[in-house]
Amino acid sequence: MGRPFTLVETATGAPGPGEVLVRVDLATVCGSDLHTVSGRRPSPEPSVLGHEQVGTVVAVGEGDARCVDGAPVVQGMRVVWSVTASCGDCDRCARGFPQKCRRLRKYGHEPLDDTAPLTGGFATHCVLLPGTAIVAVPGGVPDAVAAPASCATATVTAVIAAAGPLEGRRVLVTGAGMLGVTAVAMASAAGAHVVVVDPDPARREQALRFGAAEIGDRTPADVDVALELSGKPVAVDACLRSLAVGGTAVLAGSVSPGEPVALDPERVVRGLHTVVGVHNYRPVDLQDAVRFLAAHHRTHPFAELVAGRFGLGEVDAAFEAARTEGAMRQAVVPA
Ligand SMILES: [Zn+2]
Ligand SMILES: [Zn+2]
């Protein structure tokens, strides 16, 4: 943490059994990459960061590598892949929580290993391990739109799935960042009346272009569903307070240590409330994320959320821009 990125050269062999070698076409800087560099997210050093990216399959190892939809993974296919690689047979994988696998490996989050160095998006290539969810990206979806699917979009897909049916519901979204505007787009497409709360007026305005029906800096009362994507304790508190009878709060923004939030158990009991946590996602969520982006990127300005076009030697500048500039994502183009 706190030290600059350095370029490391490494030899790329043929992918091993079950592995897929991918050339990274474009990677975006996610908020958790920033947390890793700032030390708010513990991570091995040195490491290849980056876990939101789109790439092209260069070689497929021995075996029967398949996309989430069952299609074979073939050379030349443009793909996105999951943040996690899971074993598929531990108790957590068996219970449907592959993102919490006992033998979990995470892209952009592994120690740099000379024998298997290609584990992150800020590199020319990445080796996809067995147990990685791979999804083909339809032609026509720009790289800058597809890359965030691997983290932001798929996480929001999981959030929406956890929220239950949204048609005709009053939905609060707290935090109009990358996850927030994506949630606005998905919830409004599902027929919800979406209210967005964010302290930043520019972000609130932008949320209107993703389908928000109301924007403000104060939390409304009596919402059916509250989606917390900011990670701010005050917003978590606001979500819990805003729920109508039978309401559901889905918390997904709180991914680094923060202040605890008081919970009024009587309100939860009498209000028949449900509070759900969502972290990362399942393979089907990545599939649904790509499907959503392909269907909606022409009507919603997803491409405008990504700025920059930094080379691999400029990752420090990309991170600085991600920290200081208005755009929600900065792009690194390794080639
Ligand atoms: Zn497992
Ligand atoms: Zn991320």
Describe this structure in words.
The protein folds into two domains: 20-150 and 301-332, Quinone Oxidoreductase, Chain A, domain 1, CATH 3.90.180; 155-277, Rossmann fold (3-Layer(aba) Sandwich), CATH 3.40.50.720. Helices cover 26% and strands 23% of the residues. It contains ten helices and 14 strands. The chain binds zinc ion (2 copies).
**Low-confidence sequence ranges:** none
Query: How many beta strands in the DSSP annotation?
Result: 14
CATH topology of the largest domain: Quinone Oxidoreductase, Chain A, domain 1
SSE string, helices as H and strands as E:
EHEEHEEEHHEHEHEEHEHEHEHE
Radius of gyration: 20 Å
Query: How much helicity do the residues have?
Result: 25-40%
Q: What would you give as the CATH superfamily of the largest domain?
A: Medium-chain alcohol dehydrogenases, catalytic domain
Largest sheet, strands/sense/barrel: 8 strands, mixed
The CATH architecture of the largest domain can be named as: Alpha-Beta Complex
Counting DSSP H or I runs of 4 or more residues, the number of helices is 10
CATH class of the largest domain: Alpha Beta
Heteromolecules bound: zinc ion
Cα distance, first to last residue?
26 Å
Topology:
Elements (H helix, E strand, L loop, with lengths): L19 E9 L2 H8 L13 E9 L17 E8 L5 H4 L10 E2 L18 E4 L3 E5 L6 H4 L5 H12 L6 E5 L3 H12 L3 E5 L3 H8 L5 E3 L6 E6 L4 H10 E9 L13 H6 L3 E4 L5 H14 L9 E5 L4 H10 L4 E4 L3
Parallel strand pairs: 7-8, 7-10, 8-9, 10-11, 11-12, 13-14
Antiparallel strand pairs: 1-2, 1-5, 1-14, 2-3, 3-4, 3-6
Helix pairs in contact: 4-5, 4-9
The structure holds zinc ion (2 copies).
